[in-house]
């Protein structure tokens, strides 16, 4: 912990789990646990690409390693192969999901995993291009996932909306066709259109996806776009100007452009930050140098998310505890992040209102239980 952090700023992970909150930047593809992978591989008679113990160490598998990529990341684990190698690993992994039952099971486990961190609502990003068995049947994939999410909700687990994601390297006609199918068939739980993938591999996508995003906007879908992660602030301008993004996934490199920071603050555009992912993939060297507190201090709405928690080996409650320790956030500050996560989410208004009310009650109860009473005066 850096020297400037007061020693008393240590928030218990159990208290963090008790704060009702939303997660708005998490990829379903990044939540498959080892047990999910083993089960799917066995069901399909497919060999793992490497030893189970190091399955998420993408750089150690010949099939995904990108030797030419210098990430500046940790060099180990998921960061070692860079974003491109990691995205290839997701293709392999999601390629194992072949039946509606398997897709529903993965969605159900996702909701259970989220619930364990005290997440009550998630906007989960799903990019069908990773799920090769569903090519040409993307809406059917959404329906299969929705069935798992419905069952999860009935069982009292986290409520989830789906952000259907285009891959940055897709063509304009592919994007428009995908949105056309969504608007025609309106699969349950799809609440937003998104763009993810490697910004370095394809450059800006604003012009290319403008028509698809206009279609989505006119059809009542929300819009969230990955930018300012593997691109600089220019990617964020592109997403705001051309795609009318309501939120930016990452957007962290906006900090390099003062005018952009002012725009984000003035327009109330939330940045869906994922500090651990940025550090593992080499965008920043460590937590202490992450711009999260500087963006928040500049008046930008920020949420704290995991991105790809299974391969990153993290949970949201752990990451909030790390943020509290490194940046000096107490429980009240974390409750502020929880409120922002709910407000920034694409949950419906009734659910937002209920979660915010529950958050107020939970924060009061936790604050009461952790406040040390003044000592009785000595007579
Ligand atoms: N898909 C899954 N994780 C991603 C990330 N960190 N950036 C872009 N696309 C992704
Ligand atoms: Zn992401």
UniProtKB/TrEMBL annotation:
Gene3D superfamilies: Metal-dependent hydrolases
Keyword Hydrolase: yes
Record EC number: 3.5.4.4
GO molecular function: deaminase activity; hydrolase activity, acting on carbon-nitrogen (but not peptide) bonds, in cyclic amidines; metal ion binding
Keyword Metal-binding: yes
Coiled coil feature spans: none
InterPro entries referenced in this protein's UniProt entry, alphabetically: A_deaminase_dom, Ado/ade_deaminase, Metal_Hydrolase
UniProt domain Adenosine deaminase: residue ranges: 20-361
Superkingdom field: Bacteria
Keywords noted in UniProt: Hydrolase, Metal-binding, Zinc
Pfam families per the UniProt record, alphabetical: A_deaminase
Reported cofactor(s): Zn(2+)
Family to which this protein belongs: Belongs to the metallo-dependent hydrolases superfamily. Adenosine and AMP deaminases family.
Protein name: Adenosine deaminase
Organism, scientific name: Herbiconiux sp. A18JL235
